[in-house]
Design brief:
It is an enzyme of class 2 (transferase). The protein is α/β, with parallel strands linked by helices. The strands form two sheets. The chain has a four-stranded mixed beta sheet with strand order 1-4-3-2, covered by helices on one side. The protein has a four-stranded mixed beta sheet with strand order 5-8-7-6, covered by helices on one side. The protein has three helices and eight strands.
Length: about 140
Amino acid sequence: MLTGLNHLTLAVSDLSRSLAFYRDVLQLRVEATWDNGAYLALPGLWLCLSLDSKRSAQACGDYTHYAFSLSAADFPVLVQRLKAADVQQWRDNRSEGASFYFLDPDGHQLEVHVGDLASRLAACRQKPYAGMRFYDAP
């Protein structure tokens, strides 16, 4: 049986640039680097950056994205750091909890979000999406 998310691997076009972004702007811990990649970490997250000459910095254009958690107190600090790093915002927040949607240097769609599944479900119970059904008691 599956026990959780193992890791995320992101194809990058410029390893040094992406490593600097994830290390310096998002402040992930660097665990290892090699000629064509890097392993970084947050508690509960293993992120692999993998150099891929086929990757371009174009956003995929759909809602596929990777979200990182942070506290409400840290949210404005990180958003200010992201804006100071001139990241491109790709979407406005339309859901429960504070969120900032932005692109990494290769156009991967990322989000920083205050909240969790429990807070999202509680908000949805108050204002459900069209056709939404819940499968357990609150």
